[in-house]
Amino acid sequence: xxxxxxxxxxxxxxxxxxxxxxxxxxxxxxxxxxxxxxxxxxxxxxxxxxxxxxxxxxxxxxxxxxxxxxxxxxxxxxxxxxxxxxxxxxxxxxxxxxxxxxxxxxxxxxxxxxxxxxxxxxxxxxxxxxxxxxxxxxxxxxxxxxxxxxxxxxxxxxxxxxxxxxxxxxxxxxxxxxxxxxxxxxxxxxxxxxxxxxxxxxxxxxxxxxxxxxxxxxxxx
Length: 221
Prior knowledge:
By secondary structure, this protein is of the alpha+beta class.
């Protein structure tokens, strides 16, 4: 992958709606699309699945073309292919991906888990809030919400940190809340939502298990 190509998608999260509107189709837990460049002389296959993967095909021969991916390759033709290739990916990044304030490795691991387990990407519903949600495709109900909030709001401290809100039974919330690792729902119904800091103090496996339970609870009408 070209350095310029990596920069286009750095810190960005795929939008299911944006991908479908652009012409991508769901395939094997991800999205796949084929797009023309150079007036249709080349086809660029793009797969979005835990990353962005491409393959460029010369239409006349049906063979894969990769010279445009070689950083040092020069010449008017290869430069033109590279320019249109990057322009296509730039449009995909702009129209099919959203900026993400959630860039820490732990948070990314949680996002990747939800993508693998449920095929869902975070939805950024508010322009003025550092927040995103996951919701079930069948019921439309939220099963997780991430927010970047001041540490002083939960337990004290300086600066901001990322937290996760999940559905949980009232009994489980009562048993877990300790004012350090688990809190009653922040900006949510405190009887039915649990807040977990995403800074590693609660191990990833446990966070994922809580998301699994929340996903099941969100199935109920």
